[in-house]
TrEMBL record:
Transmembrane segments: 38-57, 63-84, 91-109, 151-171, 208-229
Gene3D superfamilies from the UniProt entry: 1.10.287.70
Protein name: Potassium channel family protein
Residues in Potassium channel domain copies: 157-229
Subcellular location: Membrane
Lineage: Bacteria, Pseudomonadati, Pseudomonadota, Alphaproteobacteria, Hyphomicrobiales
Keywords associated with the record: Ion channel, Ion transport, Membrane, Potassium, Potassium channel, Potassium transport, Transmembrane, Transmembrane helix, Transport
Family matches, as InterPro entries: K_chnl_dom (IPR013099), K_chnl_Slo-like (IPR047871), K_chnl_volt-dep_EAG/ELK/ERG (IPR003938)
Organism: Shinella pollutisoli
Length: 267
């Protein structure tokens, strides 16, 4: 009687093992994955704090060191997201991929690309899109304000992106914090259509910046007001017609009449 040869599973390549582990950390819901996602969220918040404080710190001796440390972290995030993406095309088609590439360029070449540094504020939007943030809102009983939270984030992102653009292109040479404060003051006065007129951006670029700021800013402000006033609805796709938004206590789908079984958030 001859022994049957045992099948030996060939070891997976290192890249495949790394991809599988990273997918588990980024998309998993076990304790280890939640800890990793929370740690990355904290890192992103710290990076955002560095970006916001950049105009105040850029004259300090440690600024360039922190700058390159942040660049290394963002480069790691880019590489990790590329590994966990289903395809390279999917990774390249995501807007935040190109935003992070531009941000990485501004960190590696701060002197040459400082005019694009205002895009760093888009990290706020990236943080708000984290599934962990949504999970925390639901777990802490604040799932009802998810739409309001997202509208606030969109408004703040726009406000600080415009502020960064105005600062980079019109007030970058000012000493201290005066330039950044002037840029923020102009943006708020323009978005609210107050228009005091004590700070006016020169030239055609300045006029176009004010026009875009007023139009988009008012639209986002109205969207925020609608999110606050509008009755709360839950996201629960109807099995029959696919309608996603329903009243929290809905029993039947208002589009097709199908019986719904919406789980309670507190359950």
């Amino acid at each position: 009687m001859t022994d049957q040869p045992q099948s030996v599973t060939p070891p997976q390549p290192f890249l495949e093992r790394a991809r599988r582990q990273l997918r588990g950390l980024y998309f998993g819901r076990d304790r280890e994955a939640i800890r990793f996602q929370f740690a990355m969220l904290c890192v992103d918040v710290a990076i955002l704090g560095f970006f916001v404080a950049g105009p105040y710190l850029r004259k300090g001796p440690a600024y360039i060191v922190i700058d390159y440390v942040v660049a290394a972290v963002i480069a790691f995030e880019l590489a990790a997201r590329m590994l966990v993406a289903p395809t390279l095309r999917y990774w390249l088609m995501r807007p935040m991929t190109w935003v992070d590439i531009v941000i990485l360029g501004t960190l590696l070449f701060p002197g040459q690309l400082h005019n694009f540094a205002f895009l760093r504020v888009l990290r706020i939007w990236a943080i708000s899109q984290s599934k962990l943030v949504t999970l925390l809102l639901v777990r802490t009983g604040y799932g009802r304000i998810e739409d309001v939270f997202q509208a606030c984030v969109n408004f703040l992102v726009f406000l600080f992106v415009v502020t960064g653009f105005v600062y980079s292109n019109f007030f970058y040479g000012d000493e201290g914090v005066a330039g950044f404060v002037d840029a923020l003051y102009f943006t708020v006065a323009t978005v609210t259509t107050t228009g005091f007129g004590d700070i006016v951006l020169p030239g055609t670029l300045g006029k176009l910046t004010a026009i875009v700021t007023m139009i988009v800013g008012i639209s986002l402000f109205v969207r925020l007001a609608q999110a606050i006033v509008r009755p709360y609805k839950v996201n629960f796709p109807c099995p029959q017609c696919g309608l996603a938004r329903h009243e929290a206590d809905a029993v039947h789908c208002k589009a097709c009449g199908h019986i719904l079984n919406i789980p309670d958030e507190g359950a």
